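Technical annex B. To support the medicinal chemistry partners, we prepared a structural model of the target in complex with adenosine-5'-diphosphate, based solely on the information shown next.
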Amino acid sequence: MFSKLLIANRGEIAVRLIAACRELGISTVAVHSTADRDCLHVQLADESVCIGGNSSAESYLNVSAVIAAAEITGAEAVHPGYGFLAENAHFAEIVRDCGMVFVGPSPEAIRLMGNKSRARETMAASDVPILPGSEGALSSREEARELAESIGFPVILKASSGGGGRGMRLAWNAEELDAAYDTARNEAENAFGDATLYLEKYLENPRHIEFQVLADASGRVVHLGERECSIQRRHQKLIEESPSPALTPELRMEMGKAAVAATRAANYLNAGTVEFLLSERGEFFFMEMNTRIQVEHPVTELVTGIDLVKEQLRIAAGEKMTVPKRLQVRPRGHAFEFRINAEDPETFAPSPGTITKLVLPGGPGVRVDTHLYGGYCVPPHYDSLLAKLLVFGRDRDEAIIRARRALGSMIVEGIKTSIPLHLKILEDRRFQEGKIDTHFMESFFD
Ligand code: ADP
């Protein structure tokens, strides 16, 4: 195992990674921006290096500063967390070229899955079901129109290099598609530096179901079951759960097999997530593969009892994963994750500022992953995620009751948070019955 690891991230995920390192006896190096001098991950790590100014571009996205910090401190490995440089193939390559280990898949796998149209092609070639749509990238508006007419509207235009729920355009007919084509290309060029688009059939009321996978150097590939992430706002996940109320054991097995096939097709190593859309009719389609640890990974940890970050570190160090050979096919309970953001629960406007009072819930079946502490000042420069409240129960109903209890006793004063929104969602009948799809939040607000 490594003796020293650099964490190229901040906030709750940096704190989570430090926890795994502590348990494995790995010493940790934190990096931080000037605005994050007092962030909890800096206080918890064994060493820390300031890598630049407040903006992400000056600090957490600054490849040479991160690499210099790793070299100066003698780190043997770098864990990127999620966001920032986590899916940057160039960064993974430089880490490797500098003789350090990147905790994640190879730069080649990151590059392949980062190009969503190529990812689609790869999956199609390996018999993983994909939505009807373009083979690879679109070359013209005319091609988009012909294709849409042959597969049928509605269709969705997506940026090949897209992510974070951005760069997608829905079209219900040929006129809308014509109009969307240039806008989508411009948006993609501005947001991702790549105007390439692809097109696929738009599913009207799908569920977002993703599978956690692990692959180690011995050639073993396993899936650890699914997470349902249909509660989204503007394609950003708000609440995740496992197991999905929509999956039968048979469908879980079938989708899990496809997830493993997708992982093998990408020649993938380490932890990853294969995302699918599940139609109302129970058909599933590959959407994309995320080549990093996900925000919502603890949901899977709660239902499987496996520490995914420790597995990532073992795999990166060339060891075998320690997942039992016969991991129970049936999940051992039910888990939810609620993302607590620093934002107004009604307008969703960001709400940075100083935490004047903080009381975190605990007790049976409750886990909070956070970097918050009383007196901490939430900076305005980064993602608004403050904490992830996770609950675990014997079944979905018990988990919902726990969630209500835990969210109801969580106090964050000084800034606005999404806690009141989550409490309202918990009172929704359709949510309680598990009758959810990716449009749940739109109808919730109506
Ligand atoms: P990103 O990588 O930007 O998050 P995804 O491809 O994962 O983009 O899509 C994000 C969300 O957009 C999905 O969870 C789903 O709600 C919606 N979506 C994407 N593609 C489709 C589609 N073909 N039909 C219906 N909804 C879609």
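Notes passed to the chemistry partners:
The first helix runs from residue 11 to 24.
The pocket of adenosine-5'-diphosphate is lined by residues 131, 156, 162-166, 200, 202-203, 206, 208, 232, 235, 275, 277, 287-288, 438 (CB under 6 Å).
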